[in-house]
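Following up on my earlier thread - several people asked me to post the actual chain instead of describing it. Fair enough. Here it is, all 106 residues.
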Amino acid sequence: MFSLVCLHSFFRELPYATKWTVLLIVTAVLASLAPGVAFMFAVSQSSKPCQHHESVRIPFDSPTEMVCLPEYAVVSTSHFDFFLPTLFAALVVSVSTCLLRSVLST
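Reply from S.P.:
Thanks for posting it. Predicted structure:
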């Protein structure tokens, strides 16, 4: 039965659970946005712009090495553009939860 002791325990643990939930959400958001932001930052730094206006600069491993590709070859959308980041975020949250459980169980 649900008693006053259970209710007291629930409210005592609520800030702790809320803190870890927010931490997991922030981790998932950062993990899913960081690669895209890093790529856009690398592409937007224009030391040597492309000759054609319809071209997109793609960086290599070294910041000085760039290749210019036609825009139609790089900029395209597919149905995976929505689902892959969502699945990646779910994977990060799952792994973070398992990591926290293993750390807290010791």
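The CA atoms of residues 10 and 17 lie 10 Å apart. That should answer part of your original question.
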